[in-house]
Design goal:
With 297 residues, the chain is of the alpha/beta class. It has a single domain, classed as Aldolase class I (TIM Barrel, Alpha-Beta Barrel), CATH 3.20.20. 45% of the residues lie in helices and 13% in strands. Strands 1-2-3-4-5-6-7-8 form an eight-stranded parallel β-barrel, surrounded by five helices. Strand 4, helix 4 and strand 5 form a beta-alpha-beta unit. Helix 3 runs parallel beside helix 4, helix 9 runs antiparallel to helix 10 and helix 11 packs across helix 12.
């Protein structure tokens, strides 16, 4: 299926208190910040939201809070992927029960299944829900790569809405686009490749950097949708150092530090992730200022 959402989506962080609990007050402010700046969809409990270190009760609470706070003002996508197909199916059913507009399911990490295993995984998830399902391909983190022929096979599943591509290989992404274009959308899952992915027909962006610069990421997506490439490049090049800074350590360590710097009270990542190194904090602060965003602390 096509046209589930277009434009910009933010891979939301989950703010934690120093004692480890979820900071819902801060999360509410983050949601408002995104909506006020034109973000079209919010991805909650994706990789950037650190669901791997959260309890099931915490995940449910976060989804319920997001549903109530967003109140239909943006598309709401819940992350439901797992290294266990059964758990992914269960999480997808729960996401639908809690009012998601769609789900994002990362490939089954660590197990390193075959391409056939990937197909069966997404077939099971799609069969468990009536919601649109977006596959998430991020082999540097999962050890599994959705190859173009596999993406084409997935595109024939009726409620398979798209693939978020973060494989980093534009040759592969172009071939995937060629194979799925008539039936399924492609989304950029790598902020560095936002413009080239949209240039080949990508429907939108699922961004980490937009936690900090949602308006600018939205502008890039909107400009590319209107084929205003020079405008998109101008905006993208201004925020590119910040995009790079967001990945100077493993995501979401840098972006959480950046959110703290602009007053969004992100807290610190959960172990085994650690706080951003001091030298990288200086870099992040410099890049935020260069992007035209006020640094609070």
């Amino acid at each position: 299926m096509k046209n589930f959402f277009t434009g910009s989506a933010t891979a939301m962080i989950t703010p934690f208190y120093d004692n480890g609990g979820v900071n819902f007050d801060a999360f509410g402010r983050m949601i408002e910040y995104q909506i006020e700046n034109g973000t079209d969809a919010l991805v909650v409990l994706g990789t950037t939201g650190e669901p791997a270190t959260m309890t099931e009760d915490e995940k449910v609470a976060v989804m319920k809070f997001a549903k109530e706070r967003v109140a239909g003002r943006a598309k709401l996508i819940f992350g439901t992927g797992s290294n266990s197909t059964a758990k992914a199916v269960e999480a997808t059913k729960r996401a639908e029960e809690l009012g998601a507009d769609g789900v994002l399911a990362v490939t089954p990490y660590y197990n390193k299944c075959t391409q056939k295993g990937i197909v069966e995984y997404y077939k099971a998830i799609c069969a468990a829900t009536s919601l649109p399902v977006i596959a998430y391909n991020v082999p540097p983190r999962t050890g599994v790569n959705i190859l173009p022929a596999t993406a084409e096979e997935l595109s024939y599943i009726p409620n398979m809405a798209g693939i978020k591509e973060a494989c980093g290989n534009m040759e592969q992404i172009c071939e995937t686009m060629r194979r799925i274009r008539p039936r399924m959308d492609l989304y950029s899952g790598d902020d560095n490749l936002n413009i080239p992915i949209m240039a080949i027909g990508g429907a939108g962006l699922i961004s980490v950097a937009s936690n900090i610069v949602p308006a600018q990421i939205k502008e890039v997506a909107a400009a590319m949708q209107k084929c205003k490439i020079a405008k998109a490049n101008k905006i993208h090049e201004k925020i590119l150092p910040l995009i790079d800074a967001c990945f100077v350590e493993v995501n979401p360590i840098p972006v959480k530090a950046g959110c703290n710097m602009i007053g969004l009270d992100a807290g610190i990542p959960r172990a085994p992730l650690t706080e951003l190194e001091e030298e990288h904090k200086k870099l992040m602060k410099k890049c935020i200022k260069a992007a035209g965003v006020k640094v609070i602390c």
